[in-house]
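User: Can you model how zinc ion sits in this protein?
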Amino acid sequence: MKKRFLCMLLALMVLLPVFAFAQEAEESNVGEVIVREGLAEIEDGPVGENAPFIPEGMLEDADEGDRAVIGADNRSSVNPSKYPYSAIAYMEVYGKCDCSWTATGFMVDKDWLMTAGHCLVCTQHQQWADRITFYFGYRSRSDYLYRYNSQWTAWTDNTLFAGDNSYKDHDWGYVKLNKNVGDTTGWFGMRYGMADSEYDLEWFNVAGYRNGKIQTSVGHAEAYNSYRVLHYADTEPGYSGCPVFDNEYYAVAINTAHFTDGTANIGRRITSQLYHDMQSNGF
Ligand SMILES: [Zn+2]
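Assistant: Here's the modeled complex, given as structure tokens:
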């Protein structure tokens, strides 16, 4: 009897660390996508701005010489650990179908991130994201400023599955994180409910991850309709979900797609409705 007890104890001692490890490995990046049937139309919605946050000593120094022009276009590569790039996430996303893809998102508060709606779905299988790891200041899987690998909740629009082009107007997504990420990474301000004329003839920046490398470029923008802006900064497909932002680090749109004829890029405006929707979920 005593021997059996000892055996059990021994087995427990061997197994316990395994259980502990399994639990830790499962400390997980699983989240839930909450799908909305469009945003509530509101009259006289909020118009204004939300301030950016720049962690001390992290602002990119333009004279540092780490900005290099790539090729003939106006894209540059930058230091991903310096603000504002530190506030941009390289997202590794796994769908419920087990497909994986990468995307870009950007912090807009200490625990809120914006991205494009289609970054949250496997369009091939029409399956929502199941697991996401967010890297900030990413150079490689072992070289980054911050990695967020915990639970998240995302909101987006169901028009992605409408089978027509209506999703192009509603390609927004935002994510609530469980930890204070922004104090380390910084975050972008937001200008929301902007009038058409405020986009016209302005120069804006975009910065996003392509194959794990962050690049940035500039171009002017113009209103296209009440949901979208066109902008003429050079972008790449991986830039989906990256910020379109002004020189004071205020995001004015979410970069979503190339325009059909390939001459421009599309940004989803941060409309009053979108801002109001974030507020209704605790922003
Ligand atoms: Zn899939």
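A couple of observations from the model: Residues 40 and 273 are 7 Å apart (CA to CA). The longest strand covers residues 213-223.
User: Helpful, thanks.
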